[in-house]
From TrEMBL:
Its EC number is 3.4.11.18. Belongs to the peptidase M24A family. Methionine aminopeptidase type 1 subfamily. Substrate binds at H83, H181. The gene is map. One of its GO terms (cellular component) is cytosol. Removes the N-terminal methionine from nascent proteins. The N-terminal methionine is often cleaved when the second residue in the primary sequence is small and uncharged (Met-Ala-, Cys, Gly, Pro, Ser, Thr, or Val). Requires deformylation of the N(alpha)-formylated initiator methionine before it can be hydrolyzed. A divalent metal cation 1 binds at D100, D111, E238. Monomer. Its cofactor is Co(2+); Zn(2+); Mn(2+); Fe(2+). This is Methionine aminopeptidase. Keywords: Aminopeptidase, Hydrolase, Metal-binding, Protease.
């Protein structure tokens, strides 16, 4: 069931999403060679709690047989697509890391992700990151009242595939509100004019997951981490948006990341 939000509820969601953006900005201060995802997770957890919210990923229940998610952030490095555990892996020069973060504040959820460069990263990998971020905004342009979910997926898919990248099929964006994951699913591929109708008051998380090589992925034995089958890099950017007439309302923000990274931002 798709839940439409009132203007007042959307403003509460904006607060939760702004905190996610602030947390990603805090991550930007610390991501460098020698740091571990586990250290980043500790910083994120404390930052979110200090701002009166709950890290909504922490303890999230996964598939049957999998452990509850152990971190406040998903930290996915290099060929890991999404849902990476915040481990003791030591980040090194040339790595990339997707930090996906969620908060729950005032009864509503926020969700956003940014893929960071660690030190000096190869130009072809930076190009993948730029294309993925640009594809996110191409999808957002289609997230308006009267369009359909397929319009978003078509925009993302067309933009990335024209540049030689592939779109992950097994993982999609989602509705969001009082729960982190609500209907509808929001694929990053599809056909224009298909899928659920977008209506004012819907809130969705659009999150392109784009691979440098094949679209095929592997689910690791931990029940969470997903990586590319060919072990080539994957990038991931995400915004939460509210559907409006004429133009999508982006509730999350990269402004805090960009303020820290300056000219080094993707």
């Amino acid at each position: 069931m798709i839940f439409l939000k009132t203007d007042e509820e959307i403003e509460l969601m904006r607060e939760a999403n702004r905190l996610v953006g602030m947390t990603l900005g805090e991550m930007a201060k610390h991501i460098k060679p020698g740091v571990t995802p586990a250290q980043l997770d500790k910083i994120a957890k404390e930052f979110i709690q200090d701002h009166g919210a709950r890290p909504s990923f922490l303890g999230y229940k996964g598939a049957p047989g999998a452990v509850d998610f152990p971190g406040a952030i998903c930290a996915s490095v290099n060929e890991q697509v999404v849902h990476g555990f915040p481990t003791d892996y030591v980040l090194k020069d040339g790595d990339i890391i997707s930090v996906d973060c969620g908060t729950e504040k005032n009864g509503f959820c926020g969700d956003s992700a940014y893929t960071f460069c660690v030190g000096e990263v190869a130009e072809d990998v930076k190009a993948l990151l730029r294309a993925t971020k640009e594809a996110l905004y191409k999808g957002i342009e289609k997230a308006v009242d009267g369009n359909r979910i397929g319009d978003i997926g078509d925009a993302v898919q067309t933009y990335c595939e024209k540049r030689g990248y592939s779109v992950v099929r097994e993982l999609v964006g989602h509705g969001i509100g009082r729960k982190m994951h609500e209907a509808p699913e929001v694929p990053n591929y599809g056909r224009r004019g298909t899928g659920p109708l977008l209506k004012k008051g819907m809130c969705i998380a659009i999150e392109p997951m784009i691979n440098m090589g094949s679209k095929n992925v592997v689910f690791e034995s931990d029940g969470w981490t997903i990586r590319t089958r060919d072990r080539k890099p994957s990038a991931h950017f995400e915004h939460t948006v509210a559907i409006r007439q004429g133009k999508a309302d982006i509730l999350s923000t990269f402004e805090f990341v960009e303020a820290v990274l300056g000219n080094n931002a993707i």
